[in-house]
Amino acid sequence: MIQYSLRRVLLAIPVILGVLLVAFIMARAIPGDPCHSMLGERATQEVCDQFIMDRGLDKPIPIQFLFYLRDVAQGDLGVSLQFGRPVTEILGERLPLTIELSIMALTIAVIVAIPAGVLAATRRNFKFDVFTMVGANIGVSMPVFWLGLMLAFLFAIVLKDTPFSLPPSGRLSAGVLPVPIYEVYGWEIQETGIVSFILTFVSNMYILNSILTLQWDILSDSLRHLILPALALATIPMAILARMSRSSMLEVLGQDYVRTAKAKGLKQNKVVFKHAFRNALLPIVTIAGLQLGLVLSGAVLTETIFGLAGVGRTVFEGITARDYPIIQGFVLFIAVGYVAINLLVDLSYGFLDPRIRLD
Amino acid sequence: MSTVSELPVEEHDDAHVGSIGDYKSNSLWRLTLRRLFRQKSAVVGGILALILLFMAIFADVIAPYDKNQTLIGIEDVKRRQSPCIHLLGCPEDQPQHIMGIDGNVRDEFSRIVHGTRVSLFVGFFTVGIAIVVGSLLGAVAGYTGGWLDNSIMRILDVVLAFPFLILAIAIVQVLGRNLTNAMLAIAIVSIPAYARVTRASVLSVREKSYVEASRALGASNLQILRGRILPNALPPLIVIATLGIATAILETAALSFLGLGAQPPDPEWGSMLASERNQVFSAPHLVFFPGLAIMITVLAFNLLGDGLRDALDPRLAHAGVKKE
């Protein structure tokens, strides 16, 4: 299996290089020059020349690409033109939110969709099945940005003075400040270095940080802020997963061994969960893994609507501001994330179905 | 195991099977259509799609006002006024606006109706481009094989490695912000799906004996592709194209929502929603109706696409359909 994983990682390198090249060329193909979009329309030619030279943007594009590859290999993603800070630092600040949001969205989707799909399959053509499939069809057709706005309206205005009221935007309420994990436990951290990066990263994952440091009020506040964006983001994956779980279960339930199990007099629950469900899991897991792309696309819209500074919104703003290093760095990260998730999905096949040998 | 209904009709004209008159011919398209009509959800999708098509064609007749007509000085209405429906108790002396008035004092319903035209055009145009380019690339890749196949598919893999919307955003930025470019961007991003489906179909029939027979008869590669191979790739392409219309409408609306697609005053649902999104708490109807319109349109094509997929499912293709 280790050999298989290594081979898969090696095979992914050309695709990642391709993605990087496309992102690199595309970032430079965006009309307008970065100097004027960063320093304003009134920046003089001299200032602009200096700006372009300082950042190596005067060199031919192939040379710039080679320099970029060298830097990436050394873990340096460059300095953002917009913020004047290293891209890795910005990634460390904004990625935690997107990770928490995506995990929460995918968790909601999986918890609701898989049981609903399995139940719908076992009660085929009954009310529950019809209800679930109508819901799934509507869910998959809903624009994320509309759903987000409607949820915000419902929970922040209509249900304002009820216990169900939820905040329509932001990550935490005004005045609420989480204490980073390293401060709570009195750990000294350096300005740079991998340990400090990891600790800052964990501190920026407010939910994880508050659990690790037992700050329950922060946990409840950050969860309340993330529920609506996560719900909006979860809807389409939920609908797709429910449909996939149902059809995968239906296919397995029609197999001979399921009939045999039933004929042996086994209880319905045992047949469904022990005999059928495990065999139906493979396509469900594949589809669940593939939802990551959908979640990342959805994150651009969800983060824009709910005023969250995450990866999706940062890429969108980077593209609009022609911030080359931000676009490249974040796209590289997304591509690597994709490859990693696909690899994990493929590796999980071996655990889910011992007949599958990965070699 | 063969079932009675699978057996050739002419040879089994007896009491157990029914008379010849009970059977209809089993051409693929007729079978598909018959199966499609049996599925409630597909029929609902089809009817919705037809209604939308009707609205798009007759938008000028259906809409009570012009899409960009401001009602200042014409009627006594306020900016962002809530819907007024006489049947639901709105006073008769007030002018009826079933979806309310927008931020520029225009009739929201008229703009929604005109928006149907834009959205359906977006769906068909985008899928049209993607299907032509995608199936051509897929057919060439699958038919020729070797290095050409490899290069085409690897390039398409790179496109697939990007999240759909992020790549589309970047393409629109390169091409410039307007609806045509947004449609092109969505088309480019959708090409790999069509190429893959076509390639898979081509690979499955490339070595079939009837293709070999055509080759032996001296048919050119182009003739074989056009006459023998592509018709076999058509059913799955029709399915993903129908579902693709739904995706194209949804994604183009998302681009317009981000300010990268249609620009005001065009009555595009995504951009209509975007321009009123900050008023969602005070005038929710201006966000609700455009979103609902997008959802219904996308739902129509999703239902139709799902129905077509089930109707064209090869596992059911030989089941035989008895007249009911």
Short structural description:
The complex is a heterodimer of chains A (359) and B (324). In chain A, 75% of the residues lie in helices and 0% in strands. Chain A has helices at 2-29, 34-39, 45-54, 61-73, 87-122, 127-141, 144-158, 181-184, 194-204, 206-212, 216-253, 256-263, 268-305, 311-320, 324-352.
- In percent, how much strand structure appears in the residues of chain A? under 5%
- Number of β-strand runs of chain A: 0
* Parts with pLDDT < 50 across at least 5 consecutive residues of chain B: 1-18, 316-324
Task: State the major sheet of chain A.
Answer: none
Query: Roughly how many Å apart are the termini of chain A?
Result: 6 Å
Order of helices and strands of chain B: HHHHHHHHHHH
- For the CA atoms, what is the radius of gyration of chain B? 25 Å
Structural class of chain B: mainly alpha
Individual helix count of chain B: 11
**Roughly what percent helix of chain A?**
over 70%
User: Which CATH class of the domain at 87-91 and 104-170 and 232-352 in chain A applies here?
Assistant: Mainly Alpha
Strand content of chain B: under 5%
**Major beta-sheet overview of chain B:** none
CATH homologous superfamily annotation of the domain at 87-91 and 104-170 and 232-352 in chain A: MetI-like
Question: What's the total number of strands of chain B?
Answer: 0
Describe how the helices and strands are arranged.
The complex is a heterodimer of chains A (359) and B (324).
Chain A: H1 2-29, H2 34-39, H3 45-54, H4 61-73, H5 87-122, H6 127-141, H7 144-158, H8 181-184, H9 194-204, H10 206-212, H11 216-253, H12 256-263, H13 268-305, H14 311-320, H15 324-352
Helix pairs in contact in A: 1-15, 5-6, 5-9, 5-11, 5-13, 6-11, 7-11, 7-13, 10-11, 11-13, 12-13, 13-14, 13-15, 14-15
Chain B: H1 28-38, H2 40-57, H3 59-62, H4 108-144, H5 146-160, H6 164-175, H7 179-206, H8 209-216, H9 221-257, H10 269-275, H11 285-312
